[in-house]
Design a protein that fits this description.
517 residues; mainly alpha; MetI-like fold; 0% strand
């Protein structure tokens, strides 16, 4: 009896210390990221003035907007396609249940490296090598996709049922045969879901890469922002939101049908074939918007090798300042995620049709999530820099709103998929709305919520590394400036610090996931 009491006390003490450390980290993160409600309130009037200047939208350059819109879709599409082709072998080699030794270590290291380096950094490197245009954007997205998809693929492969693999191994089957017949049938639906998610994600990112001249709608958007042509900016943003919303809904529907095994069922066959046809049509049309010049690519390869040579040795003379900026970057990611969680919980609950029975509220909540998700963080950051000034607080607000779009959707889907019996039981007692959520909904969804929160925290710390590009705090400004002034040794130091930080965050995130999910 005494032994069990001691074990329970020790367990509670560990939980207490874990949450105390988490709480302390959150408080410090809010302080370092300069979270200031007063600045937000005083900056609100600036935001309203900026929004007023955006109306009415000016579509006088609609032909130009349409042209670069197709170019953006083409960059996102082909970046995803090439990323998938590279991710598949790396994902297989970095799964610890089918790969060991040097191939495992090398592929795992490559995936971690591609995840750590911001996509905008890859874009800068390729712009330096190949010049302005969509080709650097496609190459940058391909490598960034490997960092995400390679990890997703490896995790999916590591979670497969081992029995089919063992059965084929006992017959002396070749490795490729085992992959083809025992592994791929189990992971294919998940892989397709990841691919559609990355397509949606990459088209968003393609809009941002224009900031460094890597083609697409971003070039036009940032040109108009710098020229203070806000009515033209709002026209571009309307096009961005419409495109992202359409792609998001189409990809979500297709990935859900694939995962549920209903992709070619009678009720979904026509719509899914139509969507596939549209994707094929867009891919063919996009060839006309990508000036593919093989000789330019070959000529750019020596410039990349020269760039890699110039990176060494890393310059560590300002290491202390970079370390502080890394801490600021991590703090921005933490603060933005906490704010997003606070905003997303009511949004997800109001969007869930099984507990909120007012259609107008459902639609409003869902469209709010879609809007926040459609706007890339850097676009929000540009608006918040105008509202609250330069610094990490603008980056925090940008991350918070964009993440709210994702978490609001994830929370809504989790709530709609709960077991209905506890809800119906509590409903029959005449319980109030808040009581139903407290006793029937939250106990079922907390583990999933924690998992989503940790995933978004991991992602947001990466996103924070590029907020400095538009003056919204963090290490991003130093990274981009070191590239622009050709101080590549300083850039390497920053990249290595980001890489180490991402690896540490990844380990902490995995540990927390085991502790609180």
């Amino acid at each position: 009896m005494d032994g069990s009491l001691t074990i329970n006390f020790t367990k509670r003490l560990k939980i207490f210390f874990t949450w105390s450390i988490i709480s302390a980290v959150i408080v410090v993160a809010f302080k370092i990221s300069k979270f200031d409600i007063f600045s937000l309130i005083t900056g609100f009037s600036h935001s309203i003035s900026l929004i007023r200047e955006m109306f009415p939208p000016n579509f006088s350059r609609f032909d130009k907007i349409l042209l670069v819109t197709f170019e953006t879709i083409a960059i996102g599409f082909w970046g995803t396609v090439f990323g998938i082709l590279l991710s598949l072998p790396l994902g297989l080699l970095s799964a610890n249940n089918i790969s060991q030794g040097l191939p495992y270590l090398v592929s795992k290291g490559l995936i971690n490296f591609f995840r750590a380096v911001p996509d905008i950094m890859f874009a800068l490197i390729f712009v330096t090598a190949f010049g302005l245009g969509p080709i650097p954007g496609i190459l940058a997205l391909s490598l960034a996709t490997v960092g995400l998809l390679g990890k997703f693929y490896a995790e999916a492969i590591e979670s497969i049922d081992k029995k089919p693999v063992e059965a084929l191994e006992s017959t002396g089957s070749h490795k490729l045969g085992i992959i083809r017949h025992a592994i791929m049938p189990q992971v294919f639906p998940l892989f397709m879901g990841y691919n559609f998610y990355l397509l949606d994600h990459n088209i968003r990112i393609a809009m941002v890469l224009g900031l460094v001249g890597a083609g697409g709608l971003g070039v036009e958007l940032f040109t108009q922002m710098r020229s203070f042509n806000y009515q033209k900016v709002s026209a571009i943003l309307i096009v961005v939101i419409l495109i992202i919303t359409l792609i998001d809904r189409a990809s979500a529907k297709m990935s859900k049908n694939i995962i549920d095994g209903n992709f070619m069922s009678k009720q979904n066959k026509f719509i899914n074939l139509m969507l596939i046809g549209i994707i094929i049509l867009v891919s063919l049309i996009s060839f006309f918007f990508i000036p593919f010049n093989l000789s330019e690519i070959f000529n750019g390869i020596p410039r990349i090798l020269e760039f890699l040579r110039d990176l060494f040795p890393p310059k560590i003379s300002e290491i202390e300042r970079y370390l502080y900026l890394i801490i600021e970057t991590v703090s921005m990611g933490i603060t933005g995620t906490i704010l997003a969680i606070i905003l997303s919980i009511p949004l997800g609950i109001l969007a869930a049709r099984n507990i909120t029975h007012y259609r107008v509220i459902n639609i409003f909540s869902r469209e709010t999530s879609n809007f926040f998700r459609a706007m890339p963080e850097l676009m929000f950051a540009l608006l918040f820099v105008a509202a609250v000034g330069l610094g990490p607080f603008a980056g925090v607000l940008a991350i918070a709103l964009h993440t709210t779009g994702f978490l609001g959707k994830f929370y809504c889907e989790s709530i709609e998929n709960i077991d209905k019996k506890p809800l119906e039981a509590i409903d029959s007692t005449g319980a109030k709305y808040i009581q139903k959520i407290r006793h029937a909904v939250l106990p079922q969804i907390i583990p999933l919520f924690n998992s989503y929160n940790l995933y978004l925290l991991d992602r947001n710390i990466r996103a924070s590394t590029v907020m400095g590009v538009v003056g919204a705090g963090g290490i991003g400004f130093e990274l981009i400036m070191s590239m622009r002034v050709f101080d590549y040794q300083r850039a390497l130091t920053i990249i290595l610090l980001i890489l180490i930080t991402i690896l540490i965050i990844d380990k902490i995130s995995s540990w927390l996931r085991k502790k609180i999910t």
